[in-house]
Amino acid sequence: MQSTPKRNMPIAKPPVGSSSWIVERHRIYAPCVEQTLQAEGSIEHHALLFALMSPTTRYIKLHPHAVFIESRGNSYTTDMVRAFSKTAICCNEFKQSTDAEKPKNVAKYKQITSEFEEANTAFSVVTERQLNAICLYANAKILCRYFHQKPPSKNDKMMVLDIAKRHGPMFMLSLIRLAQRKKIQYASQIVWFLLAHQQLDADLAQVLTSRSRIWLNKESGDRYAF
Question: 172-209 burial, b if ≥16 CB within 10 A, otherwise e?
Fold first, then answer.
């Protein structure tokens, strides 16, 4: 008996205009697509920041997919498509947790997830609870800026990491001053760059300051995946 072939996702339609009821809009430059993207609402804005900081993100597009959901008999548009490689794609819907947990929405997203999976495409609903669990928005905003800055020299980077390795957990300001004693230029920017790229680690459930304790991240992973 022949197996049923996987169906392809419908071709994405061109982006449509923003809904008139949305009053909170944010523009963020996305280096991975060399475009400025417009996020609608705080959840989408925060999720975009986190996605841009992820080393696994290869491509991002907001509001691109118009898909016909056969089990529901109508079309559906995702909020964001995020590509991790040429074949790994995830579509996200951004919702307040109170809305996402309503029985009618739970049932709807279950149907949508099933049909996306048939097309080898992941689908997930992202709420403010998940984003808050990743790290505070204040941290994400500054780390995103340093994530995309010009990388430091390999020598300077390794010297800072070596200091962190030899001294263990310490205040951020202490690490910066030790690096400055080694005549490392732009020591503060390098420390922030290494934090953004997860080579240094910290408690991201607290707002990062010069008094934050940081340490060498021996098992850097994709902290910003959702």
Answer: bebbbebbeeeebeebbebbbbbbbbbbbbbebeeebe
Q: Tell me, what's the pLDDT at 9?
A: 46
| End-to-end CA separation in angstroms for the chain | 38
pLDDT at 15 over 50: no
Residue 201 to residue 139: CA distance in whole angstroms:
12
Residues with Cβ < 8 Å from 169, sequence gap 6 or more?
213, 214, 215
For residue 92, CA distances in Å to 19, 76, 111, 159, 176 come to 18, 12, 14, 39, 38
Identify which of 16, 62, 73 has the alpha carbon closest to the alpha carbon of residue 40.
62
Q: Write down the pTM of the prediction.
A: 0.77
Look-up: residue for tokens 């951004």? 94
Phi, psi of 50 (to 5 degrees): -65, -40
- C-alpha to C-alpha distance for 202 and 126, rounded to whole angstroms: 24
Cα-based distances in Å from 187 to 149, 190, 196, 200, 226: 14, 5, 14, 14, 31
Q: What is the CA radius of gyration of the chain?
A: 21
User: What is the residue-wise DSSP string for 66-96?
Assistant: EEEETTTTEEEE-SEEEESSSS-EEEEEE--
